[in-house]
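Incident log, structure service

09:12 report received: a user says their structure output differs between two submissions of the same chain.
09:20 pulled the input from the user's history:
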Amino acid sequence: MEEFHKVRRLPPYVFEQVNRLKASARAAGADIVDLGMGNPDLPTNQFIVDKLIETVQRPDTHGYSASKGIPGLRRAQANYYERRFGVKLNPDTQVVATLGSKEGFANMAQAITAPGDVVLCPNPSYPIHAFGFLMVGGAIRYIPVEPDDEFFRALERAIIHSIPKPIAMVICYPSNPTATVVELEFYKEVVAFAKKHDVFVLSDLAYSEIYFDGKPTPSILQVPGAMDIAVEFTSMSKTFSMAGWRMGFAVGNERLISALTRVKSYLDYGAFTPVQVAATAALNDPDIDKHIDEVRQTYKRRRDVLVDSFGRAGWDVPPPAASMFAWAPIPEKFKHLGSLEFSKLLIEKADVAVAPGIGFGEHGDGFVRIALVENEHRIRQAARNIKRFLGTADETLHNVVSLDARR
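09:34 re-ran on a clean worker, output below:
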């Protein structure tokens, strides 16, 4: 039976292959150290949970909510931006609450994209950055992730050779999956380019608070004039360990925010009101900086343990400067297998799950993404398993080659 048109535009979800293998191994009794999905294991702060419980017990909070977010929540996000970035936002026209940044991206794509419109997207990148546009009939032209001269040369080529001219570019720093970070000067160049060529900028800032080396990550909206062309997406999933609550924001350019708000008004009634009230309490917390720093320090300790223990196991992992991920080159002996087959081997032979880089785009295939979502003890356990696995690399590869030959 032929697939529906939009489904045909989506490639097989490679992460599902790893997830099936992981589930099968666990069903057979294996103790899998799961460093695959970026699903925070830290508990949501108790006062946020308490506010949810308090609010859910009020009968007046069980009806339809506000699609764009309740006024108090939008004001809280605007206040956060002013405290953190020095950026002033009008909570009525420049802030909309989303069901996580993923939904925000998908519905923004729906709001601004006509069939055949070209959007510039980094590769490798979080899948919704590209497929949100592909699902609504857009076309993707890939650009590099690294913020160097080649990035801007690629933008110039895209403007010259894309037909029609690109309508928007997606950027994501700290990057998911590569953990690449940028300085404010980079954003200034992006804004200048976008204004010169009349291109919107959609910035994913979901990992803005997870930075490790004392240098806070900037917002593109700190650049003078950025509000004319840019919208930024943030999420409470990682910063506040609220992934399942599905609470995020889009802020910035009024025209884009208005378009997103209108599309959302037809599709949803917003998050459950008690969730929005609890999120408001989190953003207004007088100890917000202290609580965020505790989360940041937890991920930093895990990063340091991962880099040290994996390195001593024989797998050199570059230390990420930010995000909750490490972007690790596949060990040399296994590079020819590609990231999907290597990820499968890690589950089968080392009881460790990671995310194959190919799932983030073709330029990610020489890497795997390792999520810092297990405690230090479990990360060291993963390193011991990997050390044993790497010690039998020749035998493992021989068996893989033999199996392929029989096929």
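09:41 both user submissions now match this output. Likely a transient worker issue. Closing.
09:42 reviewer note: The chain has a mean pLDDT of 93. The longest helix spans residues 288-313.
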